[in-house]
Amino acid sequence: MRFPGIRGFAVLAAAVTAGGLAPAAVASAAPAAQCSVADAMVKAGDYWVAHGTNLAPADWQNATFHVGNLAVVRTTGVSNHQTLPWGEANNYLLPTTPGQPFAAEDEAAGEAYLDLYTYFHPDPPILADLRSRLADEVASVQAGHTDYWDHVSALNMAMPSFARIGVLDSSEPTLAAMQKLFQHTEKSLFDEFSGLWRTDAHSPSYWAQGNGWALAALTKVLQVLPANDPRWPEYLRVFKKTATTLSVLQRPDGFWNANLLNPFGGPESSGTSLITYGLAWGVNAGVLDSRWFKPVVDRAWKSLSTKAETTDGFVGYVQPKTDGPGSAKATDTSAAGVGAFLLAGQQVADLTPGCAL
């Protein structure tokens, strides 16, 4: 995981001291010098904060944005001071869906809360509801219920919090439950022949965003799980297999089609961003061959930062459909699409000369 440098820590300290509402002078601190990646990230985050819709709920869309928004701070040292107030306004609670006590999308906010707690504001109440929800789910898994992650996006919505709470609390039951939930999803949705993930058990399509969710989830788990954990090799194997297949399906323009095996789709930025995040991390971590994968990442980021993102920070070509492949226009955007773009930038910055704090 990336930690901020000295200048970054100064900015973060000011933000924490002011309860996440530091003066505008701090918010306008310049990104790392000569770093176009940092510039693109800051502009995208600030544009969404100023112009985005439905910013209040602790839903999976806003959770994805805020994970990316904190990635901006950790990468550039620049904060728009929005995530801590968002968490406070939601009392650090997870949403609930009637009749679905362990819906994965309701657990997505846990990752944003974990980032707040880990890097900026280590107050135990931030994680109280997340810990309670996961404890109940672990008990349910131990009772034989392992089908909660029945859609490929569920991997990113829930799996990173299981991994991080499991490691943070040295909780083997939490990590064991995560493995059982993952194995059920892997068996149901992962095609060992192609290395791709189906959207759900009833869908024949291979969705770019869905495969991006899976790759991002595995990226986040591999970042925090000790390499000597007995589950680590299987997560890495699936990560590398998915990454390899995705690398050969990239469009000539750097994007991935919303439907990976349909050559007639237009550009789609949310799936492209999530895939770029995973591939760039793999290169940074040394688990993917940079000679093959870095050119893939470079093409993807060039397309994301010059076509998907406009000069004022608007991130477009985000498909409106959220449960499978769908077309996207230049004017389509969403909180999750912006958050995915910011996550991609975090890892691309680590590959870019002049971008390290």
TrEMBL record:
The lineage of its organism: Bacteria, Bacillati, Actinomycetota, Actinomycetes, Pseudonocardiales. It comes from Amycolatopsis carbonis. This is Glycoside hydrolase family 88 protein. PANTHER family: UNSATURATED RHAMNOGALACTURONAN HYDROLASE (EUROFUNG). Residues 1-29 form the signal peptide. InterPro entries: 6-hairpin_glycosidase_sf, 6hp_glycosidase-like_sf, Glyco_hydro_88, PolySaccharide_Degr_Enz. GO terms for molecular function: hydrolase activity. GO terms for biological process: carbohydrate metabolic process. It comes from the Bacteria. Keywords: Hydrolase, Signal. Pfam families: Glyco_hydro_88.
